Structure formats: C-alpha cells, structure tokens
Amino acid sequence: EVHLVESGGGLAQSGGSLRLSCAASGFAFSSTAMRWSRQAPGKGLEWVSTIIGSGTTTYYANSVKGRFSISRDNDKNTLYLQLNSLKTEDTAMYYCEKGVDGDQRGQGTQVTVSS
User: Fold this and answer.
1) pLDDT for 73-111, tens place per residue?
2) DSSP assignment, residue 71?
3) How far from 49 is each of 13, 44, 69, 97, 115, CA to CA, in Å?
4) From CA 85, how far away is CA 114, in angstroms rounded?
5) Is 110:83 a contact under the CB 8 Å cutoff?
6) Of 12, 29, 33, 89, which one has the greatest count of Cβ atoms within 10 A?
7) pLDDT for 51-60, tens place per residue?
C-alpha cells in the first residue's frame, strides 16, 4: 500500500524559507517520478514541481521557478521541497504526489506566509 506523509509546513514571513519533506513507502520510490502540488484557499490544485526517479532532472511551475527547489534522497525514500523567498501567494496546502501524473497524494502540509 502506498503511503505518502508530508511534513515541514508552518508559518513563515514573507521572504522567509521552509523545507517540506515527504516520506514515501509501499512502492519503488527510486524509480518513480515524484511531484509537489498545492491548493490555495478557494482555488484549484496547482502543480508546483516534478523530479524524475534518479533526481537528475527537475521541472518547475513558472510561479515558483528560481525560488523553490525539489530534491530527493532515494536511500531514505524521501522527497523534499525547499521554499525560499516566500510570498503571501504561496500560502496553500502542499501535497506530495506519486508519479508523473500525481496519481496518489498524501494528506498535505499547510504553508502560511504572512506579510
């Protein structure tokens, strides 16, 4: 059974940083692309970033490019998202998702950015 458990969210000030983690189990993590998405209050789900299984290639939404960094540790079956230069519009529930299409998702971790 696939399990994805996010952590690391919280309250940050504008311009600040947070690091999100996602502990994965129940599937071949090192050979699976992973992604982060987010959902702001009253809005739909927005894709944020994808990383391939080896970790050598990453993709970012224009809204976060240059500020966020996705990475993974395949020895620990853990996915990360480093959030830098945070803006109030980054406030959202952040989800770790399995696969290129994000076919399974964790419970999410809340990120709140204050001005």
Assistant:
1) 999 999 999 999 999 999 999 999 999 999 899 999 999
2) E
3) 22, 16, 8, 10, 24
4) 12
5) no
6) 29
7) 999 999 999 9
